[in-house]
Design a protein that fits this description.
The protein is an alpha+beta fold and 288 residues long. It folds into two domains: 139 residues, Roll (Diaminopimelate Epimerase, Chain A, domain 1); 120 residues, Diaminopimelate Epimerase, Chain A, domain 1, CATH 3.10.310.10. It is 15% helix and 41% strand. The protein has an 18-stranded mixed sheet that branches. It starts with a strand and ends with a strand. The mean pLDDT is 95.
Length: 288
Amino acid sequence: MELDFTKMHGTGNDFIIMDFYSKTFPDGLDFHNTAKKICARHFGIGADGLILILPSDKYDFKMRIFNANGSEAQMCGNGIRCLAKYAYENKLTHKDVFSIETLAGIIIPELIFEEQKTGVIKGVRVDMGKPHLTKKNIPMIGNPDRQVINEIISLGNGQYFRITCVSMGNPHCVIFTEDVDSCKVSEVGPIIENHHLFPEKTNVEFVQPLNKHEIKLRVWERGVGETMACGTGASAAVVAGVLNKRINNKTEVHLKGGNLEIEWVGETEGHVFMTGPAISVFSGIVSI
């Protein structure tokens, strides 16, 4: 079977986009295994994830996203910006604000243009929804209505970290550090990802506040490993930074792959908005 695809990235977080909105969905194809095959860096196209664009019964589009290890994710901030740009540039929609159904709920992206006359997209602003802070919503083991803000976690090997946990539709465990470049992300990340406190595993953010409106961030993504960027991770990091009084509610996040602007409007009860780029790399046909 041959399938069309487009390779895209958002601040270095890269994805294989497949359009089944305007094309027939291939019944019987196992996309868990397909994702593992085509996301492989050396034997496939290479990507952090596979994104499917699908029709929705109630909204403009439906997104499914599979991590490079074949697991299905609830949502992806960088990925949804790529989907939004792809949908507009490939004439799946003429709207500049539209709704996307995800496993984490309905996400609303807004296209930002260089000039309205030319239709050149310079970025995408995404309403990421409200952060969830209780253990039952993250999810975590323990008192379901309790929040985890600056609490100690033991890794069982003599290491301890202070963590703040946030759900942006997917789970995040945020750790603040004085020097993010020296953090052993590939060593600590997978231990926390698979910690017994997180029944659905977790993403792990290592955050260095630079000042009140800038942070430097490295992310260990659940099911992927360390990535160049993570939109939900950047959102969770800013929420955690505000909760710990480290940063302001509007903050520039510096990631390995580029910068994102995150704003937590109204805080506590408000939505998180993410603004950043989406870039098309190349298109082709892959044999499955």
